[in-house]
Structure prediction request, 347 residues.
Amino acid sequence: MRAAVLRRHGGLEALELRDDWPQPEPGPGQVLVRVAAAAVNNTDVWTREGAYGLPRHPEAKAGWRGSLDFPLIQGGDIAGSVSEVGAGGPTEWVGRRVLVDPAIYADESEDAPPVGLLGSERDGGFAEYVAVDADRLHDMSTSPLSDQELAALPIAYGTAMGMLERADILRDETVLVTGASGGVGLALVQLAAARGARVVALTSGSKATALEEAGASATLPRDTDQADLEGQLAAAAPGGLDAVADVVGGPWLERLLPALREKGRWVVAGAVAGPVITFDLRRLYLHNLRLIGSSMHTRAHFAALADLARTGTVRPHIAAGFPLSDIHAAQRTFRDGTRIGKITIIL
Prediction:
């Protein structure tokens, strides 16, 4: 089968295109999915580069859960159809259009945390076929979303759903989203607006219109000094913020934490602007604030996302689609950061 195979950590040269890679065979409790579309995420790039580091060794080459086994087929975002089931498997899935939950969970509970990911700890969807556990399938037979739209959901929108759920973002609350034009940021804007929250989006000025179309009530330029930022934020959210959904990290915690209302929540799921920060702990405990770490989603979070996909309540924006043979170009386009929406791989 055709596949993009990661041979080692490194640059794009470490990602090898093959048309003779062995097709996987589904084991007991598994199905074989014919991939229709996949999508590119930061996880794919950082895993290839080995950019996650290790505890006490932040510069070490590693995946997000540690050392990886190579060769590896990346790609955690998978939409397609079931072509085969493993021994004793659920034959009723054959032929169905599906969305795949890419998480490998710690246990069987609905709220179990993810401890692995397709495309990282197991082979993923940058190939014609992928073998997945049958209990990770979600039936999309009735979904109005295209294959590319479905493939855009699992990691970015799953991460965003996990953030909103863990921070208890409710209707009529005001939430600020950092990095709002990125994959997870845009998903946060759409999903928060869909649940009736008022969204303030922090982004570059050139992308403000697109974010307002996605559901943001107000946008703030990220490249402004502290005094101007405070004034603009006060105008956009005069009563303060109920929550911040942060996907970039860095100095934003120190800059924006004072804007949280009493009992406000700051949920973080990224650190592209800097993983090591300082902030005033007094602002945290004196105002009964909550600082929440959020990594991906739970089964319950993903099931809620799948329900939205079936009804078409949220439709991801697709910035560009590339054939698998152009996966290097897809990752370069993803890294340049000039487009709003998801970069997809079409098989």
